[in-house]
Amino acid sequence: MADRGYIGEQHPQLSALDRCTRCGLCEQACPTYRLEHYEPDSPRGRIFLMKEVAEGRAAVDANLAEHLYRCLGCRACETACPSSVPFGELLEDGRYQVELHGELDPKRWGWRTFRHLAFETVLPSRTLFTIAMLPAQIVQQLPPLRALRFLFPRRSLLRKALSMIPPASTAGGAVKAGTVIEAEGTRRARVGLFTGCVMDALFAGVHAATARVLARNGCDVVVPSGQWCCGALNVHAGERRHATEMARVNLAAFADPTLDAIVVNSAGCGAMLKGYASLLDGDAQAQRFAERVKDASEFLFELGLRQGLGPVYERATYQDACHLAHGQGIRQAPRALLVQIPGLKFVELPNADRCCGAAGVYNLTQPDRSAAILEEKVRDIEATGAQSVVTTNPGCAMQLQAGLAERRLQTRVCHLIEMLDRSYRSGP
Amino acid sequence: MFDGLVQRLAAIVGPDHVTTAPGDLSNYQYDGSADSALPQVVVMPGSAEEVTAIVSACTAAGCPYVARGAGTGLSGGAVAEAGGAVIAMARLNRILEIDCANRLAIVEPGVVNAHISDAVRAHGLQFVPDPSSQAVCTIGGNLAENSGGLHCLAYGVTSHHVLGCEIVTPDGELVWLGGRAYDAPGYDLLGVFIGSEGTLGIATKVVVKLMPLQEDRRTLLAAFPTVEQASGAVSAIIASGIIPAALEMMDQLSTKAVEAYVNAGFPTDAGAVVIVELEGLRGTLEELVQDVQRICIAHGSREVRQARDEAERERIWLGRKSAFGAMGRLGSSYYVQDGVIPRTKLPEVVSEVAAIAERYGLLIANVFHAGDGNLHPLIVFDERTPGDYERTVAAGADILRACVRHGGSISGEHGIGIEKRDCMTLQFKAADLDLMARLRAAFNPRGLCNPGKLFPTSRRCGESARTVARGALAPEMVDAAGPAF
């Protein structure tokens, strides 16, 4: 068994595993436990399995792999845990070990191929990623193509993929790498804008809106060239080598010491960027970088919004992105910004901080579980009667949009920053 | 072993709901206590009829079995110490009926405690018993352990809030104990069943009482320099004739651990904090609040804070409910005791607990359902340090001895299970235990239903039960686990 224990230094650490007292308070916070009521698919169960390996009583095997990959990585258990077990880190380290051990289960070949292609080939390469995003961008620009989804059966991968592609932004615009958008009025701060990969390819309008809102609020917005994907999808899938390289690329791109903050409008990326110090083993440059990273909502809330918000006559609700609420502990700032919009009727979404089932690539790797979780979320959204559901992460936005479309609801999904931008544009 | 049983179980519940995979079994070896033992099969029924069929199949095969809800129990009640089958009840989680006019609900045993109140809050009703684990623990387990909670001072424990239940007896019969109405004629078998720790059968439906929400509520947090002063205030509050809905106390170690989690403004420099909740009609509480404040200050409290809104109140209670779970900040494992003493003895017993901690060189944090005189000393230990667990068990037994010596009891609400069974002799004579054993035999003649729990083994109180951990059942334990007691 010893030869199938953890390899090397990067593995779930006993010091972290020991914090779990097996009290079980995490169970109802866990979407997979709520779905199946099965102990191995609860946070406590997964921690116990990782600890069994750490203490030499079990091996890194197909069973461990199965339960670690059934986890969404939403980290709602961290919010529920009185002892602050760092579950997100344990999960990433556990998956890293699963991948180090290689072929554990012949049934996983599909995942391994996908993983190799997506995380080790396409994401690390700007060119390949751009090519991979082309079909989605074509559909985005030619909305009638969306109807193609009806050619595929419900719950099929292609149907899901087609209904996930976000519509092109009505406000338009895009930010260009290597440019600076100048502050309006008195300058209050100078910030770097993180643009990432999927956000940049499919949510260009959100970046443009972010730059406008920041500039309106007195910020010089620097869009450094050379920046690239944060590496979160890789790390969540237990891939560290390329993720570390991507982190180094971003550290170099944002090396400018005059930046007061590095603003990011994707919750998943933000959580990753804030974790660069730990990814790079406490590297001093990464530490300084991570300290300056701010989610756009966090940054604007702390800065204080300037006057000039115009009315948006709409009923809106807010879905917490897991990696904002559970990953970064940011819950109040987005709500506090929304309620400042005149005319906007804000209604709280029941179970707003429960995962929508997107969870990075989970909706592709575990389609049935993801769909069951999404269905519950869509029912909750429907009950609010909201015309817009506001969120702060591309994965969530696409997942919610697909779920709402599948149920033929008119509710639109928009990014928090787009809502603020709309409000400013309708203002005086 | 148990030839063909697994196939029969699979035929009953479907192959997806039964497992013998070693990895999965390992997740069913523990509950919320320090005990663990591997089952040989886990089966997850989806209906009362399936539970009946499972019990019959296990009985026919001579296989021991134990029902398990959320696995949050604190005395090893759901640990399959004798091996055999764990019957995981969590799928039976439907609220079958809510009858507001008659203020009752019928639920399946896998329903989470807090979900009942969530479902009836809009009707102005609640299910009162609120163990600290209420966000995750299930009604079946509450029934088995006769769980208490933060508000049982004023409203009573689980048995006061259950009207009836349907159970599967160890003979495989589906019977009703009690019902929808109060006071069923005949023996109070419901009273016998509640708190029987899974040794008399498995509940499959539970009729719970619902109570109206109170009009008004105030929550006070008082800080004291020492636990002794806080205990004095607790006694004085009760002596003054006030019956708070809840009256809780936490020492400094516990307060520090939970404050790091909740940020509820618990004063971490105080020796102890007391949480007082007052409930009643609107306009009647202000005077009581002032009385409580006056008593606390007279007993040395330097600060009595009132929760300003529901959010602040919820944070205070979340802190209190998180105390056990927060022990992971102090050490890798904890062992919780559940002794009860007359309230007036609190200061003395608290000093004794401190002395025991010093004698054994162990860290002991304390939370108290102070109003009930129910202590929860949390002994922090490291599983991997040889001898640490054994010292912990011995220290725990010394605490229980102190409780009994002061006229109290060895368990308030967590059950006896594995952890405290050898201490039963501190409180009961052979004749008492024999009567209980005969009662168990009447329901559970072959002793297959949750064997080994509740009754003392050949060990003395305070000797470690670790020999049985992780499935290594010693031969003498097989005897002890059987019906022969």
Question: Fraction of residues of chain A in helices?
Answer: 40-55%
CATH level 3 topology of the largest domain in chain A: Rossmann fold
Biggest interface goes to: A-B, 31 and 41 residues
Unreliable stretches of chain B (pLDDT < 50, length at least 5) are 467-485
Strand content of chain B: 15-25%
CATH class assignment of the largest domain in chain B: Alpha Beta
**CATH level-two architecture of the largest domain in chain A:** 3-Layer(aba) Sandwich
Q: Under the CATH scheme, which class of the largest domain in chain A?
A: Alpha Beta
- Principal-axis shape of chain A equals globular
Helix/strand class of chain B: alpha+beta
Task: Write out the strand line-up for the largest beta sheet of chain B, numbering strands in chain order.
Answer: 15-12-14-13-17-18-16
The helix content of chain B, as a percent range, equals 25-40%
Q: Supply Rg of chain A.
A: 21 Å
Structural class assignment of chain A? alpha/beta
Q: Could you tell me how far the N terminus lies from the C terminus of chain A, measured between alpha carbons in angstroms?
A: 70 Å
What do we call the CATH topology of the largest domain in chain B?
Answer: Alpha-Beta Plaits
Shape, per Cα inertia axes of chain B: globular
Please tell me how large the radius of gyration of chain B is: 22 Å
Q: How many structural domains of chain B? A: 4
Mean pLDDT of chain B: 93
